[in-house]
Amino acid sequence: MILKGCDVNWMDAFGGAITVCNTEGIIVYMNDFSIRQFEKYGGEKLLGTNLLDCHPEPSKTKLREMLATPIENTYTTKKNGVTKVVTQKPWMEKGEFCGVVELSFELPSAIENHIRS
Description:
Helices cover 14% and strands 34% of the residues.
């Protein structure tokens, strides 16, 4: 269902980076936020390049593992006082592994944790 007044291409308006690579590690999609986030590394020119060339160890080994087997990887990182959550999930279509989707976004300085039962 499409809600009235909402843009179908919500990914470009998402308040965080969405970066997608295929099973070879080739970047096939970057939303606008991702392009801006990686501007100093080439921004939009990164499309079509290999993520393995962009990562040092041990990240490169983890990425190789994720490209070989559809597994998830989620972590937080802090740089210049900004905490981000990064989650990398398998891109699956009709049961076939197509690559990896990475979502990265800032966390507020104070965040609530709700424990549900």
